[in-house]
Amino acid sequence: MERGENKMALIKPIRTTKKLDANGGEEEALLMSPTSRTFHEPNYNLYVLAILGWKVPINVDAMKAEIQSKLLKHPRFSSLQVIDESDDSRNMKWIPTTVNLDDHVIVPDLKPNPNNMDTDKLVEDYISNLSAVSIDMSKPLWDLHILNVKTSHAEATCIFRLHHSIGDGVSLVSLLLSCFRKSSDPTSLPTLLVSSSSSSKGKSNLSNNRGSIWSLMWQYLVKLWSCISLLFNTVVDVPMFVATALFLKDSQSPFTVPQGFKSSTRLRFVYRTVSLDDIKFIKNLTNSTVNDVILGITQAALSRYVHRKYEIEGKRKFSPQKMRCRASVVMNLRPLLGVQAVAEMIEKNAVVIQGNCFGFYIIPLSISQLDNPLDYVLKAKTTMDRKKHSLESRCTFYFSQLLVKLFGFERCF
C-alpha cells in the first residue's frame, strides 16, 4: 500500500472544506489519539476489512440511505485526517468535512470470464486487490464495495474497508451491527447473547454458604491466590514481551517474515467458510470459547503444515516441536457496548467510537502432532485462560502511550 508522511502533508489545503454545525459555525477539529496516530506509521498502516455475504442482491440506493442516516452521524466517518504542521510533534487532527457517498460506495462491474465462471475466485481476487490500493487521504478513510455477483456462499457480497485509525474492532463491530435488523423482525436490533451461568452459580453458592466463617475464609484465600497468580503472570509476561520486541525472535520457519519484506508487498486473502454450529458444538464440548476453538484450529493447521513440509524437504534432523512460534493477540480494554446502546447513541448523535483502546499479548503456538484433534483446543484454552489472568495487555498499552509521549512517533516507529 502506498504510505508516507509526504503524502499526508500534501492534503493540508483540504481543511478549507469544512462542515458547518447547527449554528452555521465551523465544527471544531479534534486531536487524534496516540494509538490512532500510530496506525499512520509505515509499519503499522492497517486497514480493517469486513466481508459480508447476502442472501439477496444488494439494493445500492437503500444501502446509501442507511449509511447516510446512521454511519455518517458519527464524526469519524465524516472527517479528514490531517497532520497539524503548526505543531512540532506533527500530531494529526480530525477535520469535519462534507461526505460525497459516491466517492465511498463503489459498485464495480464484475463480469466473469465466459471460459471460467469461477465467481468465488473472482470475488477473492477482488478482495485481494484491495490490499494493494490505499484509500485516498483527501476523503474520510473508509469505503464500501458492493459486489452483486453470485458465489457458492451468497447471492451478493459487500466489503467494508476502514482504516484502523477510525476505531478498534470491538467498536466497529458494535457500530456495524447497530445498522442491521433481524430477518424475523425487521424492527428489532440483533442481539448478542451473554453467558451468565457462571455468575449466577457463584451467587447461589455464596448465598448458600453465607454465615459460615469457613466459607468466608475460603473466599479470601481464593481471592488472595488469584491476586498472587495475576501478579506472577504479569511479572513473567511483561519482560517476555519486552525481550521479544528487542531481541528474542521466533525460529526460522515458513511463517517467518523474510529479510527485505516491505509492508507495501501485495497480500492475498484466502478464506474458507466454516459452520458456526460446528464451532459452537466444539466450544460446548470443551467448555471453551469461540476464540479458543479458532486458536486450536489454527494450531492444528500450522502443525500439520510444518510437519508435512519438513518431511517433504527431508529435514529430519530438525524437530518442529522445538520451534519457537508465537502470535500477537489484540485484547480490547474498553467495556463492550451493547447493540441497543449503540443504536440509541446514534439516534442521539452521540459519539459511538471513542478511538482505539487495546493492548497486546504474545501467545506461544504449539507446533506438535496430537492424536486427538480436541487436544489442540484444550491447549489453546489453557494458554488463553492464563493470558487473560495477566495485566500484560494493559501494561503494553500504557507503555506504548508513554513511549510516544516521551520520544514522539518518529523515534518510536
Automatic annotation (TrEMBL):
It comes from the Eukaryota. This is Wax ester synthase/diacylglycerol acyltransferase 5-like isoform X2. The gene is LOC107795244.
